[in-house]
Amino acid sequence: xxxxxxxxxxxxxxxxxxxxxxxxxxxxxxxxxxxxxxxxxxxxxxxxxxxxxxxxxxxxxxxxxxxxxxxxxxxxxxxxxxxxxxxxxxxxxxxxxxxxxxxxxxxxxxxxxxxxxxxxxxxxxxxxxxxxxxxxxxxxxxxxxxxxxxxxxxxxxxxxxxxxxxxxxxxxxxxxxxxxxxxxxxxxxxxxxxxxxxxxxxxxxxxxxxxxxxxxxxxxxxxxxxxxxxxxxxxxx
Amino acid sequence: xxxxxxxxxxxxxxxxxxxxxxxxxxxxxxxxxxxxxxxxxxxxxxxxxxxxxxxxxxxxxxxxxxxxxxxxxxxxxxxxxxxxxxxxxxxxxxxxxxxxxxxxxxxxxxxxxxxxxxxxxxxxxxxxxxxxxxxxxxxxxxxxxxxxxxxxxxxxxxxxxxxxxxxxxxxxxxxxxxxxxxxxxxxxxxxxxxxxxxxxxxxxxxxxxxxxxxxxxxxxxxxxxxxxxxxxxxxxx
Amino acid sequence: xxxxxxxxxxxxxxxxxxxxxxxxxxxxxxxxxxxxxxxxxxxxxxxxxxxxxxxxxxxxxxxxxxxxxxxxxxxxxxxxxxxxxxxxxxxxxxxxxxxxxxxxxxxxxxxxxxxxxxxxxxxxxxxxxxxxxxxxxxxxxxxxxxxxxxxxxxxxxxxxxxxxxxxxxxxxxxxxxxxxxxxxxxxxxxxxxxxxxxxxxxxxxxxxxxxxxxxxxxxxxxxxxxxxxxxxxxxxx
Amino acid sequence: xxxxxxxxxxxxxxxxxxxxxxxxxxxxxxxxxxxxxxxxxxxxxxxxxxxxxxxxxxxxxxxxxxxxxxxxxxxxxxxxxxxxxxxxxxxxxxxxxxxxxxxxxxxxxxxxxxxxxxxxxxxxxxxxxxxxxxxxxxxxxxxxxxxxxxxxxxxxxxxxxxxxxxxxxxxxxxxxxxxxxxxxxxxxxxxxxxxxxxxxxxxxxxxxxxxxxxxxxxxxxxxxxxxxxxxxxxxxx
Amino acid sequence: xxxxxxxxxxxxxxxxxxxxxxxxxxxxxxxxxxxxxxxxxxxxxxxxxxxxxxxxxxxxxxxxxxxxxxxxxxxxxxxxxxxxxxxxxxxxxxxxxxxxxxxxxxxxxxxxxxxxxxxxxxxxxxxxxxxxxxxxxxxxxxxxxxxxxxxxxxxxxxxxxxxxxxxxxxxxxxxxxxxxxxxxxxxxxxxxxxxxxxxxxxxxxxxxxxxxxxxxxxxxxxxxxxxxxxxxxxxxx
Amino acid sequence: xxxxxxxxxxxxxxxxxxxxxxxxxxxxxxxxxxxxxxxxxxxxxxxxxxxxxxxxxxxxxxxxxxxxxxxxxxxxxxxxxxxxxxxxxxxxxxxxxxxxxxxxxxxxxxxxxxxxxxxxxxxxxxxxxxxxxxxxxxxxxxxxxxxxxxxxxxxxxxxxxxxxxxxxxxxxxxxxxxxxxxxxxxxxxxxxxxxxxxxxxxxxxxxxxxxxxxxxxxxxxxxxxxxxxxxxxxxxx
Lengths: 237, 237, 237, 237, 237, 237
What we know:
The structure is a homohexamer.
Chain A: E1 4-9, H1 18-25, E2 33-38, H2 49-68, E3 73-76, H3 84-90, E4 95-96, H4 99-107, E5 113-117, H5 122-132, E6 139-144, H6 155-173, E7 177-180, H7 189-198, E8 205-206, H8 208-221
Parallel strand pairs in A: 1-2, 1-3, 3-4, 5-6, 5-7, 7-8
């Protein structure tokens, strides 16, 4: 069975590159396809609740488009999980943002998770997701590197900042695994993990977009679907 | 000082009546004004996460309009608190939906709160708000009367259903106060409270829209403003 | 409707001044009255559980006196909420100490609250109140300035100490709003808030006595009464 | 070393009998003495927060008396733990009420504890103690037999009611051990335990006064004293 | 890359059948291999903590054997996760029992999970796993069908009992997804899910062994390894 | 009644000395006997989950031996509580490891407990026990002195390290009592407590083995037995 995953870019900025798509899909089965689409109405990046609100309606449009195209699963490519609950109500295929699948992989490998994200504005948003998921007992900190989403191209600077904050997460907050808290942190997890290991900390560093598409592939292969008690279909009016 | 509170109707249905406005504002200071505006783009009612997403952008437009009109505070007239966090980032005046202020009044009067809302679809939404606010230790149940928002006009039927579910909340779940979980439940709290008292349960039944405008009036009088650490202004891009 | 709020000074020390009364009532409706009475049997200040026990019986006497005088609500003027639960059982009008209303205002404006109180002895007391209210998920620290209640007159010294501890609460503990943890901290919230803002932290600093009388005014206007399931009347014996 | 434990009866009712003293002290070392004293100012029984407030000052007087008499530990003979925290500040010997030691014994024998107490008024009080101790994860219910403290002499009726509520606690709430939630439930634990066993539930039923004096004996033998960070001595004024 | 997963049968009973192996591996990539080995020292089934202790040393021996054989991941085929933490310390490849991966799949599809297991003895064990993982906020009940592991062959009887308990989990406890709480419940999840759907409950029913091998395949493909802060290598002595 | 407590040394190392036995039993009733036996199959010390698994079967053998010898209670002499739950199922007399009884004594004397153990490997193990017992609200840190169990003989070095970490627990984490997190820390609690007092911190420092045998003596005297709902007897197969 060949799986098609809709990869929805939930921002209007020119953020998509072939390298990014390759990176995200790196561990998928060879015949699984990532079908990337970008919203047209919204903000260039998502860095606060305000951005989420403006991007969410067009995300839902693309979710429906994905379902109509015969996709088996939908990835809303953002760590903040914008419109994820609404999308699960709206379409009849599984949906993930970046937060939840990243947590699941981390929690299978470590007791306490440190999240390192981009900017301060996002921290309360992610803490809200942690609380809503009842994961406060597992997430020991949400830190940020203070680099806006649209400035994440400088690979060296981003890695250095992530290592710095990850070390604080480990030493000050007790983190035992790191979840990179923004799906635009491409191709850095490996270098951060290696740098932490060289400091004596051999722990997993999880990139959320890879986590998401891998778990969506699993859900699609297993024909899993969201609970219709948790996510009832939107009522007709 | 005369206070102006923007009362945003976050749905497109014909739900606003003079009686409703009078009821909501019943306990406000005589010189406090409620300025009611309704969104133009969205769904007729909000009964799931999908509805919230579609209504939220236009809610934010009205929040800004309220701030520009010189309002002192904003009430997003829905128990689900749609776009409340985004609005707090976006405008420089305090903002409430119905959930939070209803909880604050209930928690000052009782240890354990039962929420009784409209339809099943809303239950996981409200439970999500409870978890996000870390109020699981205080809210003992979220029940519903199974009546859609747009059918709430039948006063007798609504009261009977609310009494039935409130009694279950008290007897089976240990509720000690009832929060009516939809801001369209107008003019029923008093009758529900009286009916419960006649059954031997003398407990407060809190109507959320009244709770919200009363607490917004307090915030406005005290010149309170949301924390800019929790709610940073949306970054310029 | 004109509201009368009994303001019970639950200590025997000479702590009441006209300035304090004016400050507490600053934001009340013009026709709301604060009727201040002080206990006669107890300790000069409340700084530990031992003090609370000795002051509580006379607090209850004044609660009853307030009800008999036709008051609409009772404020037990102490952040530790001494005898609040007993008073709610005893009288048929709403009752607040300083802790709960301060929490409600803070939680409407920020996710994580830092409490800054007077002396170390009070910290476990306040932490007990936090636990009892199930607010551990919202209160990130209880710090103290190490100044006894009866030495709080030195305005400059108190403000400087509060700013110092508030900055630690923000930077080390993640506080996003500050609750002043003693109702004798008069006329300092504004200066603390301004000082924090000048350091880049634009967050609310809530004075508890003002919070209490404002929320009692709301409860009185709305004819709210404590739940008689949570607070049953003392049984006749 | 011979231990002296002050047994403070924190109510004014004629509740003390030689049988009760013998029952409480049944498992103590032969040379441990129970020195029973009763308060003079207070209420006949403690069945609500109001009663606790009125009895607490005289409890403290007897605590001091106990310390001055050379007692090694103090038992405040009430499940509600009235004045326990204040007493720990006030005297320099260990202090227990009934709630905490009963919990410790139960938690060593079972995962989930059901508390069965006297009257409804006490339930929120005990639930407050549970929350304050952070034992919500271990206590699955607080039920009551609806028999006032001063009517507990009818042994058969009390046992029957305790068995009935304990069975509900087991079957409906998942209780795996029962803590009798009033220290005036004398000589019934054994019969309740036997009755539950005859129904197929072989679980411990813990009497709180026995639990308390046994653990105080342990504390006294080990020369343990309350933490002076948690319980600072009352400040001189 | 071809993945090899060691499937450790942690009991000595004759429970392995070709159908079971086929069922577990049903959704794996075609070139992934399941290498099944069974312990030699232990108990016929695992139904309590005592059984876990007796089976665990030989489980560890097989884990090491799996690693030495070049396996990429290890599945300890039991919902109780026996020896999982020890195995993660001991070998340098990822390890899962049934509990954790089942939770991860369920939590991606529903808010509240009901677990339905075999016998009463296992319930406190699973509740312990839930608490240890800090998943109390997500798991709403642990129920059992009261059928011993070694009697699970009667397909019809098992399905009927699972449907009965799942309906109680949904209706009485609020379950929104069902996790089958024993890895010997083979080939029943589909029938249980269909039966629940026919009753109006369209929710996922997750079989834990399938969940485990699918997530181990993901971990192996992504080269993930347990955190060496959480799971340090056993110290040399 | 003379009590016999089986003291099971759950490791194979030459750790038992007459001084250790005398120290552990120091506060027991004169006629209570400690019957010490050591396992024969296992690891020299328990410092990780792997060690626990290897030692546990022989611990169970000795538990049974203890019961057969007519012992009244069993102490599994390790802070990690290895095989404690299994032993409670297996034998019909009460069982403690070091963790639980240490917690009970600490929680009766202080609100927040700091645990100071031997090596880093044990920290996640103890944190797991804390979570499983639902004591997260009471335990504020698990720290370690970084000294392996088998190097604990150097009294001065051990005391100095314990004081250093206890001071961090107090100052950085808010500990109000210290639980020594390894039952091989013999004869040091008194010195640590004295050193902390000399620094201004008058708090209890609890040695776990003493705590365990004292509480087992209480359980034996009171004829208490584990709940057979929590700990059902191992099923016959």
